[in-house]
Specification:
Blueprint lengths: L9 H10 L11 E6 L3 H17 L19 E9 L4 E11 L7 H11 L15 H5 L4 H4 L17 E9 L10 H15 L6 E6 L4 H6 L3 E2 L6 E3 L4 E9 H5 L6 H14 L1 E5 L5
Parallel strand pairs: 4-5
Antiparallel strand pairs: 1-2, 1-9, 2-3, 3-4, 5-8, 6-8, 7-8
Helix pairs in contact: 6-9
């Protein structure tokens, strides 16, 4: 892979320098920690990594604050992968799980970060244009999951089918295709987060590019009936809408159940699981 000009994203460069991170590709001496994003600094780094990665593939427009943050973040759980060695710790992969009904435990920190990145105007942070990001583009699917009263601000009364969206997956480009398999680790983390949650999460949707259809079918996702391909709003790329019942998927032959069962007890106790730099799946 070609070298990335980190100077094109000043805040990302700042984090690199502050943490004294060595060459990404020298991973044998490092470990990778999979956990929920849970501190203000981690949130700050997550919004920066999202911006850097989505700008790298031209999914979003540049902004002077160099953050990717939106109104769905205050309804999200954030899951991340940290690369660690003896000297530094750095976020290299993230995904968010968006809820229709539960606000983030870190809403105050998210609001403060949004204020810093938008000149103190955070009105847009509290103005959801749909219950989930996917419904902004595939507006005909809301009735499939939402049957009760929705107020004028797209807030659910909590009695609907609890559906969650897997959204804003971003992996540092230096780890695309890495043997560490960041994305597969994030899928394990999604399952562990689902089991750990009360009540457990099991119904998920995702909007993804049509060329990734096979990959997500292997993960238990199916095309949502009556959707088809559409241009995804804000990103302006072709997308399909898919859904997964996690309980059904895990009760069928799959590559994740046994791995996640072996990790669950330690994950609940410690709040993370890890892989070393020589990990082979």
């Amino acid at each position: 892979m070609e070298n990335i000009d980190y100077k094109s994203v000043e805040r990302f460069e700042y984090i690199n320098e502050r943490k004294n991170v060595s060459d990404y590709k020298d991973s044998e001496k490092k470990r990778f920690v999979f956990k929920e994003i849970s501190t203000r600094d981690e949130l700050y780094e997550m919004f920066t990594l999202r911006y850097f990665t989505y700008r790298y593939v031209n999914f979003i427009k540049p902004n002077k604050y160099k953050f990717d943050i939106d109104c769905f973040d205050i309804y999200s759980t954030f899951l991340g992968v940290f690369e660690e060695n003896a000297e530094a710790r750095k976020l290299v992969g993230i995904v968010r799980i968006v809820s229709t009904h539960n606000k983030s435990r870190y809403i105050d920190d998210i609001a403060d970060i949004a204020a810093d990145s938008n000149g103190r105007d955070i009105s847009s942070l509290y103005a959801r244009n749909a219950l989930l990001p996917i419904m902004h583009t595939f507006d005909n699917i809301k009735g499939r999951f939402v049957n009760s009263c929705i107020d004028g601000n797209n807030n659910s009364n909590g009695k609907d089918l609890k559906v969650y969206e897997i959204s804003r997956l971003a992996i540092h480009p230096d780890y695309w295709g890495s043997k560490i398999r960041i994305e597969s680790g994030l899928h394990e983390l999604i399952i562990l987060d689902a089991w750990k949650s009360t009540p457990q999460k099991y119904m998920y949707v995702i909007a993804t590019h049509p060329r990734t259809r096979r990959r997500y079918k292997r993960l238990g996702f199916k095309i949502i009936p009556g959707t088809g391909e559409r241009i995804y709003k804000d990103i302006n790329k072709l997308a399909i809408a898919m859904e997964m019942n996690l309980k059904d998927y895990l009760n069928s032959p799959n590559p994740y159940s046994e791995k996640c069962k072996s990790k669950l007890k330690a994950y609940i106790e410690k709040g993370y699981f890890e892989r070393n730099g020589s990990y082979q799946s």
